[in-house]
Amino acid sequence: MSVIYLLISVSIFVAIGFFIAFIVAVKSGQYDDDYTPSVRMLFDDETKITPQNNNSTTEEKQV
Description:
Blueprint: H1 2-27, H2 36-39, H3 55-62
């Protein structure tokens, strides 16, 4: 039973260590994206595909 307490306490300390490392990396700007905003204007905008109305079938029905 004491091994379980030891493993739980070690895993908590490891998790806290990873959390502190993550916070330090975020605060130091590790995850900032400096490249994408400068090239965003080079990408084409996505065009929206609109369904075409088939007017020939509606005109035939009206006649």
